[in-house]
Structure formats: structure tokens, C-alpha cells
Amino acid sequence: MLNPPPVLKVTDVTKNYRHVQALRGVNLEVRPHEVHALLGDNGAGKSTLMKIIAGAITPTSGTIEIVGKPVSFTRPADAQQAGIATVYQDLALAPSLTPGENLFLGREIMRPGVWGGLGFVDRKAMSREASAALATLGARTPSANVEVESLSGGQRQAVAVARASLWGTSLIMLDEPTAALGVAQTEQVLNLLRRLRDERGLAVLLVSHNMPDVFAVADRVTVLRLGEDVLTADVADLTTDDVIGAMTGSGVVAAPALGQGSTR
Amino acid sequence: MSAHDTAGTPVPAETAAAVDVASADDGDLRGSRLRALVAVATGRRASSLGILVLFLVIFVTFAVTAPAGTFLARSNIEAMALSASQVLLLGAGMTYVLIVAGIDLSVGAMLVFAAVTAAKIVAGYDDAGLLAVVLVAAAAAVAAGMLWGVVNGLLIVRTGIPAFIGTLGTSTVILGLAQVWTGGINVSGVPIRLQEVFGIGKLGGQVPYPVIVTVVIVAVLWVVLAKTRYGMRLYAIGANPEAARRSGINVGGYIVSVYALMGALAGVAAFVDVSRFTTATVSGYTSTALNAITAAAIGGTSFWGGRGSIGGTVIGSLVPATLTSGFVVVGFQPFWQNVAVGSVLVLAVSLDQARRRRLAGS
């Protein structure tokens, strides 16, 4: 049986800013139906690589393939068109709009017929679809008509992830999705990621430096250090010490500082 | 607990299956429900219920305390409607501007410039057909206002100057140019027929045309803001421009369109005033922009963008008109109106602030 092509294949990507090499040749492969974690300490190149995949910046050299097809993104819309949806840390939701309006912002559902032609939106339909999308992710908001401003942090994250799942047809990329959340809400968000994979059949790229999150949810992991990928493996075959060793460049360390800061 | 312990602990199946973001924080949910109820009761994006009640209280108080046949007299209601209609027309435009987190202080100056343009063009054409005069004057006023609106919008979008400073500057420039053009003297000679038929005319002998113009335009603006994609995107732009941008919305274009609309409405108001007075007045519009902002703010439109409604602005423009008329009829010094309007404004905005704090604290 032929293996399906990876959803995302990054080969030898470099990025130079004047004399600084942010990325010095990164390889990354995200397979279909997997949660893939991209780990790295601060300054390892995570966010640079993320921005390249999202089309926000262009690489100096190297190639990117989406489902086997080479692509070159020059702006975020290119990446969105290729089926990549990004959930940024700031979520980018409009607080005075409802979840439905947020999910469909920029791609609104219009009323049928003449009214739609005149620019009238169908808020009921957007609200219904939003509830359905949130339900698929196992997340419920108190009401589809409540403003996002009155939702909790975990609920807002759910809205942002649902929005991405609606528009990302191949890959959902998330930047530190649990950074601002408490223990219970973190668990809920990790479940959102599992559901993206299991219910929606999507590939998920989780950009993080939170070790417990990664071990709880990821299938495979790639570790970046100083602009290079230094480790890619199945999470099941790894211990935290392996990962910390790869992140810091030392062999095996006791590593009190790295994982625990965010363990709670 | 070390990182490794956490990682090694498998997630219980029940937890994984029964993810319910809402049920995990019940207190939060209850708060949300309450807030949802309040939001439904007060209109979705503005806290205008309180101000509606306040308006009704003011209105009924004057209706009861005023001598019979004064406050509720047809002529008085008509006078109040006329005095509210310009504030409402411009306040509706200002609501759009405030919703995209902008502000426009140049409304009065644009109005003067548009009035001067219209009056200069039609002055002396006493023998021309009435329809032609109406159309030319209206088109000239709206075009002149809109032109300055586009200038405002481009200035704010392209340079990133705060709208407050940008329109403060253009306000002075526009008014200055109007004064240079006219030598600082009012422009008269507008065909008197324009006044007779439109300016002080009434539809079916009942409703003044200026009021009808305002009602029709404001009704359209209400529906557009509340029901269309354009309106929905304006709320999004005001609430979080970055979110709108990432959704592929041309944020700058929308903002320019809103300032253009504000300018066009100043042009409509200019046409109405030229028709009513057959003169383009160069002075006397210094508080026009502030009155429009007051109406929108009393109506619950937020200065931080993303929140507001035309319905609120309708009430917000009726309050000052009612107070002015009411104090006169009851026999108070009319200056009390200023005291009352200012107090209502401060009260309305502080309510909005308290509401924001409550939400932010959740």
C-alpha cells in the first residue's frame, strides 16, 4: 500500500535576517491524521518557522510541500488558500461579536435570494453552524448569541479553534494554545486538538514549549534548537529527558527548570 | 509533580469523551447567561435600555407638568422633531464612525463647506426649474461633503494619525477654505422656491421635508448596520482590526467608506439648511460635531469601537431636543438644558464604562 503524502513537508528551510540565521536548515514532516508537536526553547526558531508556514514571511531558501505539491507562499492568504489555518496566541477574535459572527467573519453566510444579494447576512445560519462546529469539537458555549467578550478563556480558545477547523482543510497550526489557561481549561483545549484529528480527520501542528501538553496530546514531535531540527520521533518512544536533552543540546539533564515552569 | 509524571498519566476516557467547556466553570456559565439576558434586553451591542427609560421619564414629566396644550402641542412636537433631525442625521453617521473606533470632529466644517458649494452653484437661478435646483444643490452639497470625508478617511488610514487629531486638523483647514472662498461672508441668493417648496415645505401639509429626509436616511442606515455584511464587518473592525485583517477584510477601505459616509451626511445636512434658510452660513456650526458625538454617546455607542446602535442614537438625539423644549415650556431658563444634557452624557458613558469593567473582570 502506498503511503499518503505528508500534509506538510518542510525541506531544508533557512531564514536569514541580515547577519542572523534564524533558521539554518529545518526539516519537518506532518503526516495525515496526526497531532505533531513542534518544540523548542525560546529563540530556537519555532515562531519563524510558523510564520513561514502561515505565509507571513518568506524563507531564504528551502522548499515547502502541501500534500505532495510544492508551494511558495508570499502572503497569509496563500497559505489559507492551501488549506492551512492558524490559531495565533492572541486568538484574533472580535469581542463584541458572537461566536457565529466570529467563525464566519470574512466568509459570512448570506441570506438566500434577493436579500443576500443586497448584502444581508444570515445570522441564524451562522449561529447554527457555529454551534455545530463547536459541538463537533466537544465544546459548548452557553449560547450562540452571547458575545465572545463574556466567554471564558477556554471557551474563547474553543471558538478560535472551531474557526480554524472550519477553514483549514488540511492543516491546523496552533501557537501555544494553552499558554494563558488553567489546568482544567488546558485539558479541554487538548481535547479540542484530539477531536480535530479524530472527528475532523485533520493534521494538527502544535507549536509549544510546554512538555506536559506535548506528551499528553502529540503523536510525533520535532525539536528545534538554534534554527535546526535536532530530533523527530514518535512521542511513545521518548521520555521528557530525551526531549529536554535535544532542546538544550546537552545529553541527559535533570532539567528542573525547563518542563516544570509550566507544569502547575 | 514533574513533567514526566504528567506526561505518563493517560487521560481517562470519560474525560476525553465528555469535554464540555461550559460545564467545567459553572459560575462563569451562570454569569454568561445573566449577561446574555441583559444583552438581549438592552439591544445586542449597546446598553440603550436605560437611556430609553430615561427619555420616556423626561418626556412624560414634561408632558404632565407643562401647561396643557404647550409641550404636546402639534407645533411643539414639530419643532422638537426639526431640532432633533439634524442631530440625528449626523449622529447616525457618527455612530458608524465610532463603531470603527474612529471619531470625526470636522462634521461642522464639512457642513459649512458643502453649504457654501451648493449655495454658490444655485445662487441666482431663480428662474430655473425647481427640480433642477433641488438636484443640483443636493448633488453639489453631498459631493463636496463626501470629498472631504474621503480626505479624512485616507489621512487616518494612510498616515495612522489618531482620528481625533486628524479630523481636528482637517476641520480647521476645511472651515478656513470655506472662509477664504466666501471672504467670511454668508452666501445668499439661493432660489426662494427651494425654501418654499422643500426647506419649510411639508409632505401632504403634515410632515416637514427635512424630517422626512432624516427619517428615510436613518432608517436605511439602521438596517444596513444591523442586518448587512457591511454593518457586521464594521463592528468587527472596531472590536479587533487585526482579527478583521486576518479574515481577509480590507480594513482601510471600510474605514475610508465610513468617513466618506459621514461627509456625505454632512452634505445632506448642508443641503437641508441651505434650503431652510436660503443662505449658506459660514459661522455657527462650531458645536455640530460635538452634538452628533453626544447623541451617539448618550445612545450607548462606545468610544472604544465595536459597540453601538442607530436605535440608541435615535434616543440620544431626542433627549437634547426634548430637554430644550421642555425647559422652555415649563418656564425654566433654557440654559438648564446644557446642564441636563451634559449630565446625561456623563451618566451614559460611565454606565458603558462600568459595563466594560464588569465584563473585563470576568
Order of helices and strands of chain A: EEEHEEHEHHHHEHEHEEHH
Intertermini distance of chain A:
44 Å
- Overall strand count of chain A: 10
Structural class of chain A: alpha/beta
Mean pLDDT of chain A: 87
Summarize the amount of helix of chain B as a percent range. Answer: over 70%
Low-confidence sequence ranges of chain B: 1-33, 35-44
Q: What's the pLDDT, averaged over the residues of chain B?
A: 86
Q: Bin the strand percentage of chain A.
A: 15-25%
Fold and architecture overview:
The complex is a heterodimer of chains A (264) and B (362). The termini of chain A are far apart. In chain A, the strands form 2 sheets. Chain A has a 6-stranded mixed sheet with strand order 6-7-8-3-9-10, with helices on both faces. Chain A has a 4-stranded antiparallel sheet with strand order 2-1-4-5, with helices on one face. Helix content of chain A is 34%, strand content 24%. Chain A has 264 residues and is α/β, with parallel strands linked by helices. Chain A is globular and about 60 Å long. Chain B has 362 residues and is mainly α. In chain B, a hairpin with a 3-residue loop joins strand 1 (202-203) and strand 2 (207-208). The chains are: A alpha/beta (264), B mainly alpha (362). At the A-B interface, helix 2, helix 6, helix 7, helix 8 and helix 10 of A face helix 1, helix 2, helix 3, helix 4 and helix 12 of B.
Topology, pairings included?
The complex is a heterodimer of chains A (264) and B (362).
Chain A: E1 8-17, E2 20-30, E3 35-40, H1 46-53, E4 61-66, E5 69-71, H2 76-81, E6 84-87, H3 99-103, H4 113-117, H5 123-136, H6 153-167, E7 171-175, H7 183-198, E8 203-208, H8 211-217, E9 220-225, E10 228-234, H9 240-248, H10 256-260
Parallel strand pairs in A: 3-8, 3-9, 6-7, 7-8
Antiparallel strand pairs in A: 1-2, 1-4, 4-5, 9-10
Chain B: H1 3-8, H2 13-17, H3 21-24, H4 26-42, H5 49-65, H6 74-99, H7 107-122, H8 130-159, H9 163-182, H10 192-199, E1 202-203, E2 207-208, H11 209-227, H12 229-239, H13 241-246, H14 251-277, H15 288-298, H16 310-330, H17 336-360
Antiparallel strand pairs in B: 1-2
Helix pairs in contact in B: 5-16, 6-11, 6-14, 6-15, 6-16, 7-8, 7-9, 7-14, 8-9, 8-14, 10-14, 11-12, 15-16, 15-17, 16-17
